[in-house]
Amino acid sequence: MADVSVSFDSIIKHFESLPDPRHTRNRRHELVDVIVIAVSGVIVGCDGPTSIERWAKAKEDWLRELLALPNGIPSRDCIRRVLSTLKPEAFQTCFQSWIVSCLVDCEMDSQPTIAIDGKTLRRSHDRAAGLGPLHLVSAWASEYSLTLGQVATEEKSNEITAIPELIEKIDVKGAIVTIDAMGCQKEIAKKIVTEKGDYVLAVKENQPKLYQAIQAVFSGHLENDLQHVPHRRHETRETGHGRTDERYYYLAKLPRDFPLQKEWPSVKAIGMVVRITEKSDGTTSDDVRYFIVSRYLSGPRFARAVRGHWGIENSLHWVLDVTFDEDQSRTRNRHMANNLSWLRRFAISLLKRHPSTHSIKGKREIAGWNNDFLMQVLVAQRA
Q1: What is the spatial distance between Cα 353 and Cα 125, in angstroms, rounded to a whole number?
Q2: Do 213 and 120 share a structural domain?
């Protein structure tokens, strides 16, 4: 078992270079103390500065063993002021350094999956300022259950411009980046390849020519099971929740006569996923999805990339809404909403890395009353 005191000291070092936005005469509390208390509070179930202060006061004796706390526990106003004035970009950079340290002891995947997707904080609108709800685009390392970064936009439609900015902030070299149909854009595909990554991009009717061209290839050869098209395939069957899902993954080498090669020069393969669902009452349904891919992957690897993208919905967004009640957050200040959102995502990453078999909700409850368990979560202890 790792020496948690040494590990905790290393956590503090990640924030030593973080600029303190407060005026010097207002600094009654160390910046790192406020941040560690905020992170810990979000892990155990606090939803904002007021509940973070209450939890910290209840745990003051334990926190004094870890932090300087020259003037006791920071007030909710102090916590709110720090989270409202810290620049989200600088804040995230420190946490990204923390994330990298979490991965040091991992057996790294030679080609990890990074899923990029957006989520709207539905109650973060500020009508007085004429601002709609904040939209956040996040990058999720599927194999490691880690949030790698996020970019805030004012509207979901701005996701197309936010994705290249997010790719700039994270390291996609050697990774497979997956994005839904909104991110299926020529400039985004080019950006990923330029940064030495590969991609699996979903294709829908928002790219009508591309969608129809891919559909024509598969529909024209599906009757003979793609015998005349170089391809790879993979099948899965899952039973649970009163239904059986069969998925058929097809990845075809880009045909030489594919009509849009010049417009999409980095595309090397096109994919199709057929999902057939049979419910317990005997009714069936099917769904077909198409993809462009920058590398001719194996069938299982293509399947893992597609399923990995679904993971950002199931492992991150669902947990944020159901366990962290993110959709109910009424934080209006843009910096604070962004920073609190990042703390939630980081808390999920730390909680998922803890080896306990409890649910995320269960781990949060245990961390709230068991100081040793919380410390294990904070230092990303794996065993």
Answers
A1: 33
A2: yes
304 and 217 part of one domain? yes
Domain that holds residue 277: 113-320
The band of 383, judged by pLDDT with boundaries at 50, 70 and 90, is very low
Q: What pLDDT is recorded for position 196? A: 96
Most confidently modeled of 114-118, 209-213, 346-350? 209-213
CA atoms within 13 A on the CB side of 148: 23
Co-location of 98 and 232 in the same domain: no
- pTM, whole model, 2 decimals? 0.85
Question: DSSP states of 45-99 as a string?
Answer: T--SHHHHHHHHHHTHHHHHTTS--TTSSPPHHHHHHHHHHS-HHHHHHHHHHHH
**What are 116's strand-pairing partners?**
139, 179
Residue 328 lies in a domain: no
CA 53 to chain CA centroid, Å, is: 27
Query: Structural domain tally of the chain?
Result: 2
Cα–Cα distance measured from residue 281 to residue 182, given in angstroms and rounded to the nearest whole number: 35
